[in-house]
Amino acid sequence: MITVRNVCKSYPTRSGLKVVLRNVSFDVHAGEKLGILGRNGAGKSTIIRLLSGVENPTRGHINRQMSVSWPLAFGGAFQTSLTGLDNLRFICRVYGVDPESKVSFVEEFSELGRYLREPVGSYSSGMLARLAFAISMTIEFDCFLIDEIIAVGDQRFHDKCHVELFERRADRAMIFVSHDINYIQAHCQRAAVLSDANLTMFDNVPEAYEFYLAQ
Amino acid sequence: MAADNSTTSLWRSWQLQRRVIFALLMRETLTRFGRHNIGFLWMFAEPMMFTLGITALWSIAGAKHGSDLPITVFALSGYSSVLLWRNMPSRAISSIQPNLALMYHRNVKLIDIFIARLLLEAAGATMSFFLLSLIFIYIGWVEPPEDILKVIAAWALLAWFGMALAILLGALSEHYELVEKFWHPAAYLLFPLSGAGFLLEIVPEGPRDLLLYLPMLNCVEYLRDGYFGSLFTAHYSVSYVIACNSVLTLLSLAKLRQVSRTVIPK
Fold first, then answer.
1. Are B44 and B129 in contact (CB under 8 A)?
2. In chain A, what residues touch B33 (CB-CB under 8 Å)?
3. Which A residues in the span 23-52 are in contact with B, Cβ-Cβ below 8 Å?
4. Measured between alpha carbons, how far is B124 from B121 in angstroms, rounded to an integer?
5. Nearest-CA distance from B39 to chain A in Å?
6. Hey, is the C-beta of A73 within 8 angstroms of any chain B C-beta?
7. pLDDT band at A149, cuts 50/70/90?
8. CB contact under 8 A, B106 and A71
9. ipTM for the predicted complex
C-alpha cells in the first residue's frame, strides 16, 4: 500500500511561491489501478515524481509499503555514449538483478537487433522508446507509475507492450496520469482529478470525467 | 516483497549502497574510457604520462629543490600527490546536473554519484603512483620506501582530503556557478605551494609555519618522510591534517544533504 498524507508541493519562482499541490491525501492498495486526470500544467508529472521518490514533498508524508517503479518507459537516465546493452546492465545492477539473465528478453522485446550493441545516442526516438519500455519490464515492482499514454512503435509493438504490462502484470498496482479520458477509462477502476492544486477523488471514472469537464 | 522503508536495517543499506556504487562505477568507467584500444587502462595510463613527463622535465632542467636529493623520487612523490588531490575536485564540480536523471532510480543518491566518480579518480592516481614506483625501483632510479606504512598513511590522508574537498566544492557548485570559475585558477596557484616542487626544510621558519596551514603540503611532506625521510628533515602535523579533513568532511556532507533536498530532476 502507498499512503499519501497531506502532501504539499511548492516551487520558488521569480514571482513568488508557486503552489502545485495543496494537502493531497490518498491511498493506493495492492493491485489497484488509479487514474489521475488533469489539464496541462495541473501538476500531474509532479505527483508522479513525488510518488517515485525522486523529489520530496514540501510538507506531508508519502509512505511506500510496496516497491514503486520509476516512471514507466522513462529514458532520461540513459547514458547516450554507452550502448543499449550497457545501459541495461547498469539498471540491472542498480536493482540487484543479474544483467545477463535479461539480455535475451530485451533483445527480443525491443526488436533492436544489432543496434542493442550500438551507442544509445545513435538511436531514433522510436528505438529509444522501445529500449526504455523493454528495460522497464526487466525489473519487477508492486506498483508501476505510468505518465501519459505509452504509444510506442507500430501497432504490433503496441500490442506486445499491452500484453507485457496489462496482462502479465495485471495483479500489480498502477497509477496513471493523463489528460486522456479513454485511456484512464480503459484501465482504471478509480480516478482522481487534479485542478487548482487540489486532488479530488472519485469512486468511479465517469464521475471523475464529469468533474474534469466542468473545470 | 520487502517493504521499502520500514525494515531497512543498516546491513541492508550497506549492501544496497555497495550495489549502487558498483553499478555507477562500471557505468563511469565505460563512459570515460570506453572499450577502444587499451580501454580502462587509460585510468592510470593518463596520470602516469603526466608524472613521467614532469619527472623527465625536472630531471633535464635539474630543478632547484634545495637539496641534492635524487630528482626522480622527488618528482614522483610530488607530482603523483598533486594528481591525487587536484583531480578529484575537478571531476566533482558541476557533476550534479548531468547525472540528475539517475535519481529516478530511487536508490541512487547524489553521494553515490560522487563516491563512484571520486573512487575512480583516486584509483587511477593510486595505480599510477604504485606502478611508477615499482618500475623506478626495479630499474634502480628510486630506492624502495624507507617506511612503507608512512607512505600509505600519507597517501590515504591525501585521498581523504581530496574527496572531502571534492564533495564540498561539487555540492557548492550546484548553488554557486562561481565555484567552477574560481577552482581552476585556485588549483593552478596552489600547485606550486602544495610542496610538489620544494621541500619545507629550505623555507625560512616564518613562511614555513604559514605554508603548513595547507593540508596537502603536510601530506606531501609526510609521504616523502616515509619514502626518503633519512635524506631531509620533514615538517608536518598528522593531527592537523586529520582535523582539517574531519571538518571538511562534515561540511561537505552537510552541504550535500542540503543540495540533495533542493535539486529538481527534469
1. no
2. none
3. 49, 52
4. 5
5. 14
6. no
7. low
8. no
9. 0.86
Distance from CA of A14 to the nearest CA of B (A): 16
For residue B3, what pLDDT band results from cuts at 50, 70 and 90? very low
Query: Which residue shows C-alpha cell 616523502?
Result: B224
d(CA B152, CA A36): 58
Cell of A108: 527480443
B178 at A interface, C-beta within 8 A: no
Judge whether A82 and B27 are in contact, CB under 8 Å.
Answer: yes
* Cell numbers for A198: 487540489
Q: Are A7 and A50 in contact (CB under 8 A)?
A: yes
Interval A155-210: pLDDT, tens:
888 888 889 888 999 999 999 998 888 888 888 989 999 988 889 999 888 889 88
Whether B35 and chain A come into contact, CB under 8 Å, resolves to no
Chain B partners within 8 Å of A128 (Cβ): none
Q: Which three cell numbers stand for residue A130?
A: 522501445
Minimal Cα distance from B15: which residue of A?
Answer: A96
Instruction: Write down the pLDDT at residue B123.
Output: 94
Strand partners of residue A11: A18
Q: How far apart are CA A99 and CA A97, in angstroms?
A: 6
Residue B216 pLDDT > 60, yes or no? yes
| C-beta of residue A45 within 8 angstroms of C-beta of residue A36 | no
A169 close to B (CB below 8 A): no
Q: What angle do CA A38, A41, A44 make, to 5 degrees?
A: 50
The DSSP bridge pattern shows strands A173-178 and A190-195 to be unpaired
Instruction: Determine the pLDDT at residue B77.
Output: 92
pLDDT by residue (tens digit) across B42-73? 888 888 888 888 888 888 876 555 556 788 89
B79, B99, B94, B106: which is closest to B224 by C-alpha?
A: B79
Tell me the pLDDT tens digit for each residue of A33-43.
999 998 888 88
Contacts of B108 in chain A (CB under 8 A): 94
Interatomic CA distance for residues B175 and B141, integer angstroms: 47
* Pair A107, A89: CB distance under 8 Å: no
Segment 58-117 of chain B within 8 Å of chain A by CB: 101-108
Longest dimension (CA), chain A: 52
Spell out the alpha helix ranges (H) of A53-175: 84-94, 100-110, 125-136, 155-162
Instruction: Give chain A's end-to-end CA distance (angstroms, integer).
Output: 30
pLDDT tens for each residue of B115-166 = 999 999 999 999 999 999 999 999 988 899 999 999 999 999 999 999 999 9
Cell numbers 572531502 correspond to: B164
C-alpha cell at A150: 505509452
pLDDT of residue B2: 42
Q: Do B5 and A53 touch (CB under 8 A)?
A: no
Kindly report the backbone phi and psi dihedral angles of residue B203, in degrees, each rounded to the nearest multiple of 5, phi listed first.
Answer: -90, 135
